[in-house]
Amino acid sequence: MTGLHTDLYEIRMATSYLRRGMTEPATFSLFARALPDDRGFLVCAGLADCLDFLARFHFDDEELDYLGEELGLPDSDLDALAHLCFEGDVWAVPEGRVVFANEPLLEVTAPLPQAQLVETALLNFLTFSTAVATKAARCRIAADGAALVDFSARRTHGVNAAFAAARLSAMVGFAGTSHVASACRFGLWPVGTMAHSYIEAFSSEREAFRAFAEDFPEATVFLVDTYDTLAGVHTAIDVAKTLNLPGGRVAVRLDSGDLDALARAARKILDDEGLPGARIMASGGLDEHAIARLTAAGAPIDSYGVGTKMGVSADAPSLDTAYKLVEYAGRPVMKRSTGKATFPGPKQIYRGESGEPDVLALRTEPPPEGYRPLLTPVMRTGERVGSGHELFDARSRFEHDLAWLPEAALRLRAAEPVHVRRSAQLNDLLARTLHASTS
Amino acid sequence: MTGLHTDLYEIRMATSYLRRGMTEPATFSLFARALPDDRGFLVCAGLADCLDFLARFHFDDEELDYLGEELGLPDSDLDALAHLCFEGDVWAVPEGRVVFANEPLLEVTAPLPQAQLVETALLNFLTFSTAVATKAARCRIAADGAALVDFSARRTHGVNAAFAAARLSAMVGFAGTSHVASACRFGLWPVGTMAHSYIEAFSSEREAFRAFAEDFPEATVFLVDTYDTLAGVHTAIDVAKTLNLPGGRVAVRLDSGDLDALARAARKILDDEGLPGARIMASGGLDEHAIARLTAAGAPIDSYGVGTKMGVSADAPSLDTAYKLVEYAGRPVMKRSTGKATFPGPKQIYRGESGEPDVLALRTEPPPEGYRPLLTPVMRTGERVGSGHELFDARSRFEHDLAWLPEAALRLRAAEPVHVRRSAQLNDLLARTLHASTS
């Protein structure tokens, strides 16, 4: 089902346009009006879902029956919708690149009814994915080189959101995921230890540790906080020594309490007991701020399991995105609502090499000297074009942009996004459109 | 795919149990450790997804291949997993009922490997759905009788989350949804007006209003804030009068600015112009607090479109839920981690008629005089039992519990949940289990 995955007003508007022959090309621009608090950048994501949706977009018989029988659309409307698919052009910023407020993540140019009907789905895919990818990127920055693993599958907004969180966190540099189905689908490193229930199912922690180490001697992560954390570390060491596990294959996981203090104490015990190669993993309600505090304190933590707060982008579970008409039938248009004004015309983002402001320009403008365009064609007359939509490509682009971002934009609190200036031509069009719509 | 929709540690633990013949019955209890800030209750939801998942749970050939080839599980493990499905018992609080911290939403009793493997999925479904249903219920309380419509499809965490938000908001009394696919699937009232782009696609607001009213004379909602809101109200009235639209079928939608002041001004203009039956709809970034302010101010708003902040449960996009082993092979167990202690044994929640504290008891205890149980059997040896899983039933239960909740629990800020006291038998078991695990 693709046709009905939309808001009713899109269908009302589209049928109104179709009845009136208003099928001239329209360009819609999808962008974030503002960045959430503390964010210095957004990591573009969700484009693959958009392209899949657009390529499949149509109304099937069941959907048309619903529109006729339940919404009362006449046969003439249903005939028109039955013949409708997406035949437009799409420009987009590739997945993994960073953008700022008012920079289009995607622009659609298509006959007006088509471009209107896909609004809901495009906003959904890009908003959700970009929010989660950005949150995961912030965890990556906070970890400062420590390994990160996605533990979010149990609290994302449904199964499909768990797949997305695993894929998006891998895109920004997470080392693996606990979600096995995602590891299988995307070729990620599956990571898993044991739960407290495992310890409790045995008659003692020692018995549980021994059983687990016997079963998984290649990579044994002992969860040590079920009863008393530091006693658990000692028990893990005893078991590892009894079974002659190499120190490099042993780790302890801390999932509660003062992680900094416990990590230091555990590190000392492991070192004193002759296991300097054993690693320490931390988990339990972590987000970028908690990780940054541990990093800043110098806590000897080798890897972090990051779950819920990344997977739902807890402090910013959505973005203030908009999908706005910027041109219809060759006429630039804009909205002037209080606090929600938009800029007219199809656009391009031009970016310099070394931290100078981005330039938001008209698509037809040449780039300023030394600048490169961010928006690239990804669909022409409904057919996909270009390449580079694989996870590996997106990860490379993110690494490039992460190195490019200035320190002020990387900050986790009170970040300063890179400035975006409007080109003279865009400002000129803005003034002329404003004048035309008020005169 | 159901078998791999889990965290890797579940598979590691399950295979370890299977190798050791640890397949005695285990009971896990799923509950929220605490309510999010400002919440006075939770609305249980997501059970239908859990039961569908449990009924279908198995490892298919592709999944087994992955576990063998990529994770290196030996054939003996794969054989055991291939024969595994969910054959357990499930007790749950039916959808639509309200619960409080530490009250189980669901308890599973099954052979240990089965009960362990389904943890990730059950936590995911119940946490997400309960969070969103609770957020929507708070909007319902804030609206104090005004109609509510779900506008969230464009910013939920994927398509399936859009279906869930439409269904869950209907469960707590929303009148309709903008998401057509959800309206079709669940038999909800589809609601839709026009977007700003519709206005902009015409050469003037008046022309756009006239076209829309001609096309949809049965229910014409004019979006009036594209250029100047109150001028837009006058234009809408002119068009309605020109086309002789009955006042009762006309509405204006305010989507930006000071909604209280604009609603009052619009109401006065509509009344002065002889359209006292015309309605006013408000939308634009609303949540329960914004709605409550408008309600308290007496803003003359007839209906609210509530989108993103409800659909992602913006201030609490997840809950601090846990799935904890409480009994294995007849032995009560508990966890003592700092701040994460659990209560042993299978449980029942007993509730009184008129706001007295709930009683968290052992499942085998009789109810206190005048109290009724909340947890009911929903699955026996892997087969669904009981009825009442329909949306209509859940909605009725929510209405009952909404009327039952005391004022302090209904508050949107600094709410006071109903107190939950532990029965003497539960306290006794707690003391004995604590003693056994430390001695």
Level of helix content of chain A? 40-55%
Q: What structural class should be given to the helix and strand makeup of chain A?
A: alpha/beta
Total of domains of chain A: 2
Radius of gyration of chain A: 26 Å
What percentage of the residues of chain A does DSSP assign to strands (E)?
15-25%
Individual helix count of chain A: 17
Identify the strand order in the major beta sheet of chain A: 13-12-1-5-3-17-18
Biggest interface:
A-B, 94 and 94 residues
Report the mean per-residue pLDDT of chain A as an integer.
Answer: 95
Describe the biggest sheet of chain A? 7 strands, antiparallel
Low-confidence stretches of chain A: none
- How many strand units of chain A? 19
**What would the CATH topology of the largest domain in chain A be?**
nicotinate phosphoribosyltransferase
What CATH architecture of the largest domain in chain A do you see? Alpha-Beta Barrel
Shape of chain A: elongated
CATH superfamily of the largest domain in chain A: nicotinate phosphoribosyltransferase
Q: How would you classify the quaternary structure?
A: homodimer
Distance between the termini of chain A: 44 Å
The CATH class label of the largest domain in chain A is Alpha Beta
